Amino acid sequence: MEIVFLGTGGGRINLIKQIRGTGGFRIDSSSANIHVDPGPGALLSSLGYKEDPLGLDAIIVTHNHVDHFSDAMVMIEGMTNYGLKKRGIVIGSRTAMEGPDRSIHGYHQSKVDDAYSAVPGEKRTFKTEKGTFEIEIIGMKHEEETAFGFKLFLDGKVIGHITDTEPAEHLGKAFSGCDVLIINCMKPEADKYHGHLTTGDVIAVLKEARPAMCIITHMGLKMMKAGPAKEAEKIEKESGVKVLAAKDGLRFKV
Ligand SMILES: [Zn+2]
């Protein structure tokens, strides 16, 4: 299995300046190819890194913020063979899937085999053309109230993802048992804007979750300035968990 980072930038300024990309990441495995949070540039970076949108089996949108969903419908057109064949799976936050502000329109939801509006606490199994995977939905504490993180069970491995969230007590326990835990670590330290995890918050989560490996991503400008590799080293030293700072184009073999 391989995790491919298509965009590792986070925050409002990076979103417009595109210092780092915002295309999310993709998990290529023998049971499913899954694109997580296809934000601005997801299509172009997929093509640039030779990750064929036609080869997708599932698309996950963790919450209804534009840096996480803007290319989702475009990627659905790819996953469904240019929109010509009903196939694939879309898993989105309730606000991304339902109601007037939904970012994934009914037309595009109708193009896939299975459109699932994620419910925290639920565990679901999905069948793809190549096999099956299971997802456990874990609630986040974010401005988009239906935002969710997840644990994916596929190819005998557990891949966890903590998306945008404030620090929350349940995270450490909820994300235990991961082979790889991908965490959106936007800032090196706390500032007046809350709603995202800092290096210190990630240390606290890892001390409890104890994954075999952690990869930090979705970095804001302050994180880039502080030096993501240096912050990763600090997290590793204090948590005792192996930590890698993602870069655009990073391919991580699980
Ligand atoms: Zn967000």
List the helices and strands and how they pair.
Blueprint: E1 2-5, H1 12-17, E2 25-28, E3 33-36, H2 42-48, E4 58-61, H3 66-69, H4 72-79, E5 89-92, H5 94-97, H6 106-109, E6 114-117, E7 123-127, E8 132-139, E9 148-154, E10 157-162, H7 171-174, E11 180-187, E12 197-198, H8 199-209, E13 213-217, H9 221-226, H10 228-239, E14 243-245, E15 251-253
Parallel strand pairs: 3-4, 4-5, 5-6, 10-11, 11-12, 11-13, 13-14
Antiparallel strand pairs: 1-2, 1-15, 2-3, 7-8, 8-9, 9-10
Helix pairs in contact: 8-10
This protein binds zinc ion.
Explain this structure.
This protein has 254 residues and is an alpha/beta fold. The protein has a single domain, classed as 4-Layer Sandwich (Metallo-beta-lactamase, Chain A), CATH 3.60.15. It is 26% helix and 28% strand. The strands form two sheets. Strands 7, 8, 9, 10, 11, 12, 13 and 14 form an eight-stranded mixed beta sheet that branches. Strands 6-5-4-3-2-1-15 form a seven-stranded mixed beta sheet. The N and C termini lie close together (5 Å). The protein binds zinc ion. Zinc ion binds at residues 63, 65, 142, 144, 164.
Keywords:
single chain, globular, 254 residues, 10 helices, alpha/beta, binds zinc ion, eight-stranded mixed β-sheet
